[in-house]
Amino acid sequence: MIRTLLIPGLDGSPAPHWQQWWAAIDPTAKIVEQHSWSKPRPEAWLTEIAAATLLHPGSVLVGHSLGAIAVVRLLASWPQVKIAGAMLVAPAEPSKCSRIASFGPIPERSLNARVVVAASRNDPWMEQDQARRLADRWEADFIDMGDAGHINIASGHGPWPAGKALRDLLWPRNGSAARPGIRRTGSGLCKLKAHS
To answer: Superkingdom, according to UniProt (predicted)?
Structure first.
């Protein structure tokens, strides 16, 4: 049974990206494949993600970079999508790159879902202040990942088991659908940024 749908960013986050690791070691995780990783089109990407949620209702969506923005666009456009929650890791600002510009502007309203945004202080793809502001607009919990770069291979994140622990916080406890209540900055859950 698939419980985690992984949505990579531009160029598909190839191995040894942590999303590839998760898909390889967790039989309940699956990468949502796109027809074109290098020339992304919002309509095509959202259609693939929506189709995956129909096949695997109640999953947690884990989007990285452009994948995080695709998840936001999906939730803002199709509120009927049935998910357990969404984890948006190092969201990318579409205006930073012409190849992803068509994914902008980023929706800035409640996503009506349990959402966690994990963003670093030195991510070249989106300033943390913007990620924090968007998290507030989305009514999402925010995790300050410290100086973790784009939370990818280049910033030292291989398998990233701490990220899986963060994802696990989105699962309902005892049938409860309550929000996870993990809004933290500074210390606390920031320890989840471990690179191993």
So the answer is: Bacteria
Contact present, 10 and 65 (Cβ < 8 Å): yes
pLDDT at 186 over 70: no
- Helix and strand element counts for the chain (H, E): 5, 6
Task: From 81, 60, 57, 84, select the one nearest 176 (Cα to Cα).
Answer: 84
Find where tokens 């190849």 sit.
99
Spatial distance between the Cα atoms of 166 and 163, rounded to a whole number of angstroms:
5
Q: How far apart are CA 47 and CA 44, in angstroms?
A: 5
Q: How many domains does the chain have?
A: 1
Confidence (pTM): 0.88
pLDDT digits (tens, 9 = 90+) for 39-85: 999 999 999 999 999 999 999 999 999 999 999 999 999 989 999 99
Cα–Cα distance between 174 and 106 in angstroms, integer?
A: 34
Q: Which domain holds residue 147?
A: 4-193
Q: CB–CB of 68/44 below 8 Å?
A: no
Query: In CATH, what number is assigned to the domain containing residue 72?
Result: 3.40.50.1820
